[in-house]
# Entry
Amino acid sequence: MRTRQLRLNDSDQIRQRMPEFLGKKINIVLNDRTVMFGELKKVNETEIVLRNMRMEKTTYPFRNIVEIYVDAIV
# Structure
C-alpha cells in the first residue's frame, strides 16, 4: 500500500468531505497560516472538533479553515 497527501483548499469541498476523515489524523491550515494537527473527533455544519497531541479538544469554525491535508492510503 502507498500513501499520498490529499489536500483540500476549496471551502465547499472541505465542508462536504470533512466527515470522511472522522477518527483520522489531519492537518488544518487556518486564516492566519497557523497549521494545527490532530485527530478529527466531531463535525457539524459550522465547525469541527480536533483533539491535538496533548489530548485537548479544540473547536475550529469552518470560516477560519483555509485548507486541510491528510495522508490517504491508496
Notes: The chain has one domain: 3-73.
